[in-house]
Design brief:
Length: about 325
Amino acid sequence: MFVRKILLYSLLLIVGIFNAHAAEPKIKVKVFVAAMFEISENQGDKAGEFQHWYLTYFKETKPIQVTGAVNPVFCNKDGVCGSVLGMGKVASSASMQAILLNQHFDFAQSYFVLNGVGGTPPSQGTIADVSWGTWLVDYDLGHRWKPEEAEAGKPTFMPRKGYENIRSYQLDTNLVRWTKQLSANVQLKDSPSAQAYRTRYPDKNARRKPKITFGTHFTGDTFFHGPGLSKEAQYISELYGADDYVITEMEAAAITQVIDRLHGTSRIMSLRGAVNFDQGHPNESTLAHLDPAPGETAGGFAETVENIVLVGSQVVDHIVLNWADWKDATPKLN
């Protein structure tokens, strides 16, 4: 009899715990901010891609552990959530899928800001620029061969059949127009070190002050570098009918594929800050640019990661403050 009572009590306890968890309301996520890395802590040290977001939105929140994600999720009372997903296609997309499928969250009406740092071709941008993506293109999906094995001057990349639906994504044009309007008046920060570094490049865009740009963000696990591969990225953008290549990064197309399978792409935004050029200046080899000597780095990293949040928060705040207009669909912008 005693054993039966213990078993009955245990069963009731288990059922009670299960029901308690089942009764917990899901967090309705209005905006999810995805960063790819943080240098160390979320506050109190050198900032990476997430720290300024954390200080702006999540400082008073508690971490939510998610099985399968490399870092916890933070959510504030206004429905803004964020996490550091990990660098590269596999780490970031695996974390995103684990978070999307987790029982704590309701992503049915969520907007996504995929944000971080990247590189820019000097013909298109400069250090401390902030760029909203209009297209996301996967750099890795196709066939490549060595230039010496090709006809002189001809491309060494060929698309492969079967990847048509995942090799490129055009982001919602109406939402891109909203990002342009909402962030148009943000004053971007700059640094003396970045200003000095720009003078090494002859390109007009490379030498100017930082600004907000729009164009194709190129996703690749391969950290491609040099004028030849930069031209190849532009060639692939044109081949796919995308806009000019303006940012190189490592995650956005992969994360978008994961989100697309569950929620589509109409609420995805890609936001990147340029912390390096994708090639050396005319008097610098590609290898020297990839592995710079002390004092030869671009500078401006701290200002760029702050600029990203200065720009992105304008959109996040507007969506949250006007949620009744945004929850069912992105409002039409006349």
